[in-house]
Amino acid sequence: MTLSVALRNRFGDFDLDVAFEAGPGVTALFGRSGAGKTTIVNAVAGLLRPDHAQITLDGERFDSLPVHRRRVGYVFQDARLFPHMSVADNLDYASRYGARASDRPRIIEMLGIGTLLDRPPATLSGGEKQRVALGRALLSNPRLLLMDEPLAALDAPRKAEILPYLDRLKAETGLPILYVSHAVDEVARLADHMVLLADGRVARAGPLFDVMADPAAVPLLGVREAGAVLRARVLSHDEDGLSTLQLASGHVQLMGVQAPVGAEVRLRVLAQDVLLSLTEPEGLSAQNILPVIIHTIRAGDGPGAAIALQAGSDRLLARVTARAVQRMGLVEGQSLFAVIKATSVAQSAISGAAT
Amino acid sequence: MMLDAAGWTALRLSLLVGVTATLVALPLAIWIAWLLARRDFWGKGVLNALVHLPLVLPPVVTGYLLLISFGRNGPAGRFLEETFGLVFAFRWTGAALAAGVMGFPLMVRAIRLAIEAVDPKIEDAARTLGAPGWAVFGSITLPLILPGVLAGAVMGFAKAIGEFGATITFVANIPGETQTLPSAIYALLQVPGGEDAAIRLVIWACIIALGAVALSEWLARRVARRIAGA
After folding, report:
1. pLDDT digits (tens, 9 = 90+) for A7-36
2. How confident is the model at residue B230 (pLDDT cuts 50, 70, 90)?
3. What does CATH list as the number for A3-212?
4. Chain A residues within 8 A (CB-CB) of chain B?
5. Fewer beta carbons within 10 Å, N or C terminal of chain A?
């Protein structure tokens, strides 16, 4: 299933003109508030009629259909459960039109909402509401899922509660999922593809690992949020609380890894947490030293520069000052060493699924 | 408290007129309220003004306008008589029409407020789940606005029961046919010694009005509790 979206819309001063594709798995629409993310998903759902739209799903035109015949599952930021119906009635409402009642037990089990069925929505916590909303969207038997910042209204513990369900959802449904977010950590954990939006245009689009490691994406993600995402395998949990993980180019030791030995995980290494050294450093407190090759150097608008590094088949991103680039004489193709502090990779940046 | 035969007739007729006017006007009022609350269209302001006209016009004027349009020689009256055999002039049906027209703005206002209080995003969510527009209205909007609909219905009913000016202008004051409670009270007050009978009718008018309000409060509370899910 591939969703292809081309939209143009003018609303007051805001001019949206985007085109992108989203295959199976999670495609993150990322951008600041006002970048046009919600406009895009609303147009795909049919809740908004843009000036020009060409939306196809596996080649089938979609944009002329009324909302109720598009079969998109839409999970809103505010769960939008029907207040006058119990959780079970909310779910049944979706299966009435989706005719997917046979999946009901499986979906209820997957989202862990079996004990909530008799409750009215007003008595649910934010995280529970969002899980019910997710179940309701799935029971409508959708051809694709739209998720508009489904975690934005939740506090950190509630987010942590939902994320594993989203991992499962992704693994078990195989639907194309358009996931709107302005939180890089969510995107880094969940997304397979990424569409970076800025001022109503697609600034960058591609596989998540490529976009996150792209120096040109640094200003769009924010200098403090930018950083490559790496695939890693957990090799061991050591007695001193550190865990050893296998990267393409070597080992790293990190703190707070929860995944079991052998698990494939994603690591998000912030560009500002990567140091560069011309020689292999010795006598340094940081233990994670990887041999790398400079792929590209991109000077920023300010005093900083973003450097893309090749570490085996992995890509890393480092952010250093332009002065350091000059003083160290860094050039593209140069071999040197990247240093990552064990404490710098936050636990929230480590996900359970690497796919 | 006990009424004579003429008093009972007027009371029964009033209830018949009130119930008929409310039941016929209510679906139309819901539709108009929905149009005004949820749709943008050319002439919306005109429609809104038209709906509110009976509220601000002198009732006698409304009654006279009904007479010249729905009377036997009026264009609408003639059409309805020839097509459906429906006669309004000097019949109880005319009293119901007058009562319905006068109560209509009150119904529309209450229902419109209720619809505007329903978050359209909830309705959008239902549409994305596959529900066509009419089903969204029936399964989401209508249950959520039910307290407002009940409030509107009671207001309309109370207005219908009490309507006097437009009714007497349109269909006169014929005992047993168009003489409702207010017309009967008015007629009794015009003759010497009629005050006793008038007072009894007044008491009944109060009982009906208070009963209607109490009933609607009770229903609205039940509905609200169901909607809140407690």
Report:
1. 998 888 888 899 998 888 899 999 888 788
2. very low
3. 3.40.50.300
4. 45-47, 66-74, 76, 78, 80, 82-86, 93-94, 96-98, 119-123, 136-137, 140
5. C
Q: Which regions of chain A carry the CATH code 2.40.50.100? A: 227-349
What tens digit of pLDDT does each residue of B91-131 get?
A: 999 999 999 999 999 999 999 999 999 999 999 999 999 99
Instruction: Please identify which residue in the block is written with the tokens 């196809």.
Output: A56
Q: CA A355 → CA A130, A263, A307, A337, distances in Å?
A: 24, 11, 25, 27
Of B119, B129, B227, the CB nearest to A97: B129
Residues of chain A with CATH 3.40.50.300: 3-212
Closest by Cα among A229, A225, A126 to A182: A225
Which of A47, A48, A67, A72 to mutate to test binding with chain B, by most B CBs within 10 Å of its CB? A67
Domain of B99, CATH number, reads: 1.10.3720.10
What the block records as the tokens of B119 is: 């978050």
Kindly report the CATH number that applies to the domain delimited by A227-349.
Answer: 2.40.50.100
Question: How does the average pLDDT of chain A come out, rounded?
Answer: 86
Contact A38, A18 (CB under 8 A): no
Question: Which value does ipTM take for this structure?
Answer: 0.82
| Domains identified in chain B, total number | 1
